[in-house]
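Let's practice the habit of predicting before peeking. Look at the sequence and jot down your guess about where helices and strands might fall. Then scroll down.
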Amino acid sequence: MLNAKDLELLAAKGISEQQIEEQLACFVKGFPFLEITASASVEKGIMVIPQEKQATYMDAWDAYLAKNKKIVKFVPASGAASRMFKNLYEFLSADYNEPQNAFEKKFFDEIKKFAFYDALNKACIHNEVKDIPALMANGEYKTIVATLLEPKGLNYGQLPKGLLLFHSYPQTARTAMEEHLAEGAMYAKNNAGEVNIHFTVSPEHKALFEQLVADKTDDYEEKFSVKYDISFSVQKPSTDTVAADMENNPFRDKNGNLLFRPGGHGALIENLNDVDADVVFVKNIDNVVPDSFKCSTVIFKKVIAGVLVSLQERIFKYLELIDSGKYSHDQVEEMIHFLQEDLCVRNPETKLLEDVELILYIKSKLNRPLRVCGMVKNVGEPGGGPFLAVNQDGTVSLQILESSQVDLKDPEKKAMFEQGTHFNPVDLVCALKNYKGEKFNLPDYVDKNTGFISYKSKDGRELKALELPGLWNGAMSDWNTVFVEVPIETFNPVKTVNDLLRQEHQ
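Done guessing? Here is the structure:
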């Protein structure tokens, strides 16, 4: 099936023939739906931390920071922002010249509120010798949009979200990336005043990000009295997946070459695995707010990090106890109770195990990466949600699932999905080392059965694309997972350009 040219391409990407075979087999057999037992809720699996308890967890986090551990803020920031401007691209290609629908009217009515207004105005004057008010008075609305999106102007249609101006301040405007620098200084600074931030970016944008860091870091170091260590990585070519045609054979382009596609955000588990850190915060690039709104975000980041290190402390204590061999029957009971109640890991079969087997089971479940995930109440936003799911060994544990992983044709499962009270805003804090201080190898904890197939086209021909298990879905399937309710105000994503007009971004 593979020719000499194919093998050369595979070698260059670092992909084995076996991987290609496995991927093509996925197209043939598809992916099984996950077995779910319930949607997670406050009654089942989601911790609600009362106000009087929040300070205890924040103190636990501050105490952890004082130990000079390595903390990293990990921000997926690849991909162009073209989806953010979908409505404006539609306006450009429409057969009318003035704003017609509610989205277009809002964009132009409130155009002065955008943080990029001054930069756009300058570009309009430079290119058209008219400012924005003059262009609007003249009915040249499309010229303004073209100046925003196209290379002759600000080129926002081709840039990643991280490099776009999101928020206005009295003397300046900040990009989404800069907001992450500010945020990192507020909750991820260790005792030595260091803040480590890692961005995953597209290869074509990496130089632009590096330039922005070079231009701005000094200002933020001075403003927040910190020292930044900012690093970047790109999705590894070895995580690309082969595309298939409708007969499940490798898809070849018009030159007869194999077509590979990026494997989606699940590929980033490899990037996360390369990060050397004790604790990592994961949050998407577009979920940021100006400083005046950051208070709630910072409090709850510290709260969920405090929950993480408190749980980790207990896990390590139990694992050391198991290693010593000096544990009583009561202590084994206590560990089982902790697994079931605090980590929501249950298996009815454990009642049947002898003590020796039981200890091995407890150890295998405790000794794995740990994550605490913020969950917000459902307000109709799209996205995955928290569930109790059945793993391959029969254990039920907490998982974040997307709708594609649930059999929505099954009325019972569909009801569970629709009754979900919370959804996943991608607000994670992760512990990546074991009780001996060694790094976990994260790819070992991926459930490979949780990828999904999407349908795309190339050169006018349909194709099947393979998405790897998502970063916070199947890629972290075999982790210990805890859900904590966080307030909706900590979740302010920018999916369309008009989201920047929401109160939280002003």
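How did you do? The chain has two domains: 4-77+163-505, 87-159.
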